[in-house]
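Much of our argument rests on the idea that a fold can be written as discrete symbols. The amino acid sequence and the backbone structure tokens for this protein are reproduced below:

___
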Amino acid sequence: MSEISFSFDDKSYKGHPGEPMAAALLRSGLLTITNSTYHGRPRGVVGLGVEEPNALVQLVSGTMESMLPATVIEVAAGLAARSLTGIGALPDHPEEARYDKTNRYVDTLVVGAGLAGLKAAEEHLRAGREVMLIDDQPGPGGHLRQLGQELPPALREVLAHKNLTYLCRCTATGLYDQNYIVAIERRSDHLGNAAPANRARIRVWHIRADQVVLATGAFQRPLIFANNDRPGILLSHAAATYVAVHGVRGFRTAVVATVDNQGYRDALRLHKAGVTVQGIYDVRPGAGGPSVDAARAAGIPVRFRATVLDTGSNTAGALDNVIIRDLDTNETIQIAADLLAVSGGWTPIVDLATHIGIKPKWSAEHAAFLVSHTTDRLRTAGMLAGDFGGDDDPSVYFGPALDEEQSRHAYIDLQRDATLHELRRAVGAGLHSIEHIKRYTTIGTAHDQGKTSGMLTIGALCQLNALSPGDVGTLSFRPPYVPVPFAALAGRERGPLSDPIRITPLHQWHVEAGAVFEDVGQWKRPWYFPEPGEGMEAAVRRECVAAREGVAVMDASTLGKIDIQGPDAAVFLDRIYTNMFSTLPEGQCRYGVMCKADGIVFDDGVTTRLGKNHFLMTTTTGGAARVLAWLEEWLQTEWPDLKVYCTSVTEHIATIALVGPKSRQLLQELVKDTDLSKAAFPFMHSREATIDDIPVRIARISFSGELAFEINVAWGYARHIWERLWALGAGYGLTAYGTETMHVLRAEKGYIIVGQDTDGTQTPYDLNMSWVVSKKKEFIGKRSFQLPHLKAAGRLQLVGLLPGNVDEVIPEGAYITVHNAGPDEQGKTPHTGFVTSSYYSPMLGRAFALALVAGGLDRMGEDVVVPVGKNLLRATICDAVFIDKENLRRD
């Protein structure tokens, strides 16, 4: 087989295309791949695949992924990697190759392409089903591949079947309800520098299947003994595979420690490849079977009731001797060896099954937790279900008894450097639950999620507490099964595609007018409209004056708009809002507040009754989606008897707000068929009208406190109406204003913005809005108002704030403290609230703010202090309505 070059830690190595990088490094004589994260000890390869706890690397080529085991990285042209201790690093520049995602529905999904998985696929293909077979290995066969054997002809025919989709290098990372599986497929070329055009290197599969077969196989597990982390200590199946299949010739003498017959089979493979096996040390009192007989016939020494106790190292830190203990006499012997192959039994891969709540059951016969599960939707097969095959008769054994000093270097979790000593300390602290132990010691919390350490932890707990593994139970496994790059989850939705950019039908006009934009949710909204030479402060002051003294116009199309229809629509809104809507006459509008079940304000807006069973609700710009979801949740899960239909019309209806004392006069020039006078068109009323034969709906709604009209028109006609206003507005000094001016105007009137002037703990009463809470009806959250903590003194309540320095705009978010308040016992100055909105008001001729203050509604006139940097700003608590408390201006 041809060789290609790759680099590791800036040094060139040779390898065969497609083989594991770990194999190529071992064949080159590199035993130490990295140093351990916390103890700094040299570490080398242990396993064959994703169970590898030690040999983590950072890709320098291709996808530049971090924390990948060298055991799963295939040698490829252009491959470059470096050793990794601890966490890795993200690339400085985004990877140029594409990530992708796709969806698939199949009759049957088989996870695992070993013998059990292939046989399951064959069975379902014969039944006429469409089958998808996925496996994380580069090719099919499972253990057969690791033995260097070919697939039987019958199973090769399965792979060629027209109804089979086979994906190699595809890892099922999560199993969810209703047979929904997420899998990550990696192309073989995702490691190197060159990526074929238009080809995804990593693809996320979202798969839904009628039936799922889990044939996930098992990991070989290690043993706990002193200094069990040295380079040169490998799982026996991995050691035999590297030597016999991948041609690793650096090991000369080996010791095999085993609890089952797998150790004998692996010893034979090592022996046949030319490694001198010094002996097989078996914890069992005796064993028989073809593999045991074959080992003896090959002249390999076998000793029962003996196991490894400790190891020694050379100057480089790699293994050079093994200390064996006789379990009956406690006598020890030292054996020279540069390879220790450990067979501690098999741990079936139960992760995916546990994702949907299936509990593994302990089998003493197999010395393992199994998932033997069969329903019409999901079944397990192979080693996961207990079909271990071979002539195994494993012992339930996890390691010899160790003294205190030995336990300090007896590693359970190699990635976390967690030892038997730390586990004993956790038990000594009174912890008995495996989940508590996991969090106390961090065992099982690294990238490998305890794939080799989980069963060792359970076994050690059993030895310490004289329990059975079945009594202890397994760790909790959660998706993803292996680490997944965020870039893969994002797919093509990166950069500008990561979140949709939403624009109104007037966006291009705003661009041409020189607007400065801000992002509000996903919307691009004009922030302010500067004239030449103007900064933000000057532009906002000019816009505010125009709205208060003349006429100004704003694009309010981003308001959330939900069309609500049905014979029970009025009843539904009565339950959703804190105030009454069933009494609202047709053609009128009403401001409403909605609370969650806990009584906390959730959103607000104005709803118009368009007909007996027809309402148009407006929501906050950022809250449109969550409000619609909230409405649907109650309709579908709590009140399915109500006949109500909710439809988002946010992007169907554009809204233009015309504001100021001259707004009625200007609009009347456009609207010929509707009387806009105060008597004919009162506040909070809505009228159907036309402008240039275009149907519009006009509402007397004001978020500024001024005389104002909101013109609602079909999205496609918005720019025509807007430009007609501008054509007539020149003589009125019409001014466009943005969101910053809107904030100043509404804050001067004490109008809140949910999420800015609330922090998720306010009820309507905290916002001094008891007038919006009906005492005549039930609504969501009403009963929660009686909870003691929602009626307690000292709650954060909305108030106004006037800085002592009239020109000082207090930073939003600044803490508020009591005058002359000193530090507490921790040396911190206690705060009594914080600033939520803060602006300069041309109308007031001064700065002002809104704030949430503890018990604020009862503290009017009190002076407070706002620390800003090294300065202490003085301010006075006042009412939150700063202008026109009588609401005279809006008419």
User: Anything to note?
Assistant: The longest helix spans residues 624-638.
